[in-house]
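Lab notebook, bench 4. The sequencing result for the construct came back, and we need a structural model before the next group meeting so we can plan mutations. Quick request posted to the team channel:

Model the 3D structure of this chain.
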Amino acid sequence: MKSFALPTSTLIATVSLLSLVTIGTVRNIMIPGSQLRTETLIAQANYKEAIAHFNRGINYTQQEKLALAIAEYTRAIELDPNYALAYNNRADIYYQQQKHDLALADWNRAIEIDPLLAVAYINRGSLYYLQKKNDLALADFNTTIDLDPRFAEAYFIRGAIYYSRKETEKAIKDLRQAAELFRQQGNTEMYNSAIEALRQIGA
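Done. Here's the predicted structure in token form:
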């Protein structure tokens, strides 16, 4: 059986960063003024500071200053231990540094905090796929698609898993869905990858 190229590392970096750039700036607390107490004001200040560190972490990551980015995400987590997005982005850097155990721990924590965070599932699933733990990877991609049916990358890698299991019809269906979503989203590079994968398996 033929195999086709799957840029898993590129997927992880792209998904975790591009999906979160706009999210970090809108994480606010809305509390009626009459209910504000000293501890609430402190909590609000911590949230705002955590968001600032999170956004600086994104900027440093884009500048490839990874040590500084980790420090910013870590500070965001210290200020807000339930900041799932910060765990997700820090995990991405650990992955880039080949620190897979640390990456997995952070993605596990992100999912524990926010079971609806689709990007953490696809990132963890991509790591499992890289480690050839396809059953675990498949479960995470299924969850990603359940949470966000427009997550093209999840269909793409799930299609690769189905193909490796000789479930060709499922693979073709997922790759076609991935290609269509990539086309709609203007992701030409990944659209071409999906089309090439379909060509290689004779679809």
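Residues 1-42 have pLDDT under 50 and may be disordered.
Will bring this to the meeting.
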